[in-house]
Amino acid sequence: MLSPSEFIGQFFIIALLVVLGVFVLVVLIRAIRIIPQAYAGVVERLGRYHKTLQPGLNVLVPFIDRVRPLVDMREQVVSFPPQPVITEDNLVVSIDTVVYFQVTDARAATYEIANYLAAVEQLTTTTLRNVVGGLNLEEALTSRDEINSKLRIVLDEATGKWGLRVSRVELKAIDPPHSIQDSMEKQMRAERDRRAVILTAEGTKQAAILEAEGSRQAAILEAEGEAKARVLRAQGEAEAITTVFQAIHDGRPDPELLAYQYLLTLPKIADGASNKLWIIPSEFSEALKGVGEGLFGASQRAAAASSAAGASSTTPPGSAPIV
């Protein structure tokens, strides 16, 4: 059985070993540091910058090296609240912006600026007021790309020494005063009404032009059809006249027949309810003369034929007629 002094000695040794083990464990924990991907750690040795820890397993000197809060190396998106900006024509507009930036140097972002997020916000506000202050309201509303480009260039140059890189700056909204919005809405409504009236007038004009063009084409086609019909009708009549003329010449009619046909044609000349005056052609007397000669000649020829027949019946056969 141990004496009290021996028991106390063993207890002291066990406690010392436990303390030593805890110390060694703490030393190992503080000597090993694991950095996640896309982060960086700034190491200070005895209060001064020593190195920047990269992602992975890193070994430190316990109780001498101290790791500051990790710096996010990914691209960050920060939306700033609306800022009042006065334009060149003395109108106050509210503009809110979105900035895309990335930390490229953890050491500069830690030691060159106390709070780079607040610095970027204030720098964006002042730069935005400088840029938009030289534009009127209409230019500010229609020149977003130009404003974004100027803001990005100025912010990228100013934040380069802070270990930051500004990739994009976007204007999320530009809100003019309500009175200006009402005026703009009335102006746009009037402009839309004017365009509607112009388009309606252009449509009516185009419709009238097309209708006139269609009527002209229809009239032209109708006239062409009528002309072709007249030509064909004239050709048919010419062919009919030619055929009749040829038939007449082939039949070799005597003057008496022609005079008789002429007399039959005269009533057709005066046919019609509107004919009040009948003018007799000069050839009418010649036709009557021809008809008279024809009838008289026919009667003479008939009498001569009858007399000749009577003489031949009274003369005996074989005897010569008395002259």
TrEMBL record:
Which Pfam families does the record match to this protein? Band_7
Q: How does it sit in the membrane?
A: Single-pass membrane protein
Which SMART domains does UniProt cross-reference here? PHB
Key words, A-Z = Membrane, Transmembrane, Transmembrane helix
What does UniProt give as GO cellular component? plasma membrane; side of membrane
PROSITE patterns linked to this entry: BAND_7 (PS01270)
Q: Where in the cell is it found?
A: Membrane
Spell out the coiled coil positions from the record.
none
State which residue ranges cross the membrane.
7-29
Kindly report the protein's main subcellular placement as a broad class.
Answer: membrane
InterPro entries, per database record: Band7/mec-2_domain (IPR050710), Band_7 (IPR001107), Band_7/SPFH_dom_sf (IPR036013), Band_7/stomatin-like_CS (IPR018080), Stomatin_HflK_fam (IPR001972)
Identify the residues that the record assigns to the Band domain, covering every copy.
30-188
Family, similarity comment: Belongs to the band 7/mec-2 family.
Q: What PANTHER family does UniProt report for this protein, alphabetically?
A: STOMATIN-LIKE PROTEIN 2, MITOCHONDRIAL (PTHR43327)
The name on file for this protein is SPFH domain-containing protein
Q: Which organism is it from?
A: Ruicaihuangia caeni
